[in-house]
Amino acid sequence: xxxKLVLIxxxxxxxxxxxxxHHLSTTMMDYYGFNIWNLAYLPLTGGxxxxxxxxxxxxxxxxxxxxxxxxxxxxxxxxxxxxxxxLYWVVTLAFLILAFLFPWFATxxxxxxxxxxxxxxxxxxxxxxxxxxxxxxxxxxxxxxxLMFSILFLSPRFIGKxxxxxxxxxSFLGATGIIYIDHFLFDFxxxxxxxxxxxxxxxxxxxxHAQIPPVLxxxxxxxxxxxxxxxxxxxxxxxxxxxxxMSASISIMFLLVGLGVIDMNxxxxxxxxxHQLGNAAFAIYLVHNVVLDLFSEWMDQAGWHEVLGNVGxxxxxxxxxxxxxxxxHFKLELPLHRLFxxxxxxxxxxxxxxxxxxxxxxxx
Length: 364
Hints:
Elements: H1 6-11, H2 14-32, H3 47-63, H4 72-101, H5 113-121, H6 137-149, H7 157-175, H8 184-189, H9 193-209, H10 214-236, H11 244-265, H12 272-279, H13 281-302, H14 304-363
Helix pairs in contact: 2-3, 2-13, 2-14, 3-6, 3-9, 3-11, 4-6, 4-13, 4-14, 9-11, 10-11, 13-14
């Protein structure tokens, strides 16, 4: 029986919260010169990197016992599809409607057919144009990660493991520049982000196969959490010769291992509200930037900043992003997930019934 990882589940909320802070800081900086913790000067906060690693961690932890088993590959890919695409398409449609209603909201890319197609299907654009939803650039990589992870479901199992390891080696060679081809597909297929996903897989394997005492789990978690602000400070005022990407990745690995070890050794209980926040992480991640852009412009025109000030307006925008993200989770994400699950069960039941009917016909 698979143990429920409560802290890992809760940590999913780190992804949208870190990304929200960065986008909020950038927005407040653009409008009012208010730079929250100087985050606007950072390329990222590391939230997306955590998303990549956490995706690898959870994929391995949930599906490791299904590798090489018949029928599991299609189930894995379908489950990943309905987790990402339905809600993404609905939020994308909402963005396009807003762009039509409010010309200032549009980016101009809505008229480019190449961007339209790559945005809808979450595939890389040859011109490196981001999808309509800016945050969805990370989903292009996530879809790719899941496709590569699906190799592990091949039978016999050693073939899948060998191919997956080969992909990791090629990604390392590509990310370090040992092998390089000047083409956008090479940059995408062998990006350093692949190593973050594989690092998450390794962390899950580690907590499952190594006997790590809880005290080291707490220490690892503390190092990981401290690593984020240290990474930010080093990016703003360098005091260590280490890249932002590497520093954030090391922090993430410590955090994942620490949380995983504690979850594996302790019965963790958290308030239901925090559990739901982790569940709503994906919806918050998708929705928050649309909410931020829309309300920051409207509140600026209405003069709310003069009343609330920098801190008050920032807090209100955070509340709005969380509110609409959680609302999207309950009113869109969960119903869409149930709807698609129902269709799939019906199709599977129909297929099974047809095969059984065929078998009976043959016998008679």
